[in-house]
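Can't paste images in this forum, so I'm doing it all in text. The chain is below; anyone willing to post the predicted structure tokens underneath?
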Amino acid sequence: MKEACRNRGYTKELLSECEAWAKDHGCQEFASDCEIDNRNSFQFHKAMKFQEAGRVICFAKRL
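Text version of the structure:
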């Protein structure tokens, strides 16, 4: 099912609506993130004119 929904513009349309809502509510910046190895998400963000702001390493420790 996931593949059947790819490249149909759904995410781009949803992002556009979210950005419009945010602007209407006084927001001046919109942020998002993706896993460092998620090439599809990275390419989508770049295509939507997001600029990379930094990279983060997340840590976990089992107790």
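The chain has a mean pLDDT of 91. Helices lie at 2-5, 10-24, 39-47.
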